[in-house]
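Q: Got a minute? One more chain.
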Amino acid sequence: MTRGERHAGALRLERMIGRVLRAGVTTSSVCLASGLLWTMAEGTSAPARLLLQTGIVVLLATPVARVVVSVAEYVVERDWGFATLTAIVLLELLASALAALVFNRRL
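A: Always. Here it is, folded:
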């Protein structure tokens, strides 16, 4: 792989990660703002609570989605070293979530 190809791949990865992060933060913000406004207008209700919880879950899932995109892009680029390291990070994130569920019996 030439230096120019690596540079183009890095730019593509940065753009994809940027889109994932923007989409996650925007979706989370819309859900949280809607849930807050609903709560302020009508008090605590099931739909307002669902919007607030969805906003928090999306916000927490956004960095994980970034890691998934990174793994996929490194595999496409056949950069096995970074693909392996990033996959290990993803496994650690998933293991942490699983441990939280198992040891705390709630999410």
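A: Helices lie at 3-42, 46-76, 80-104.
Q: Perfect, thanks.
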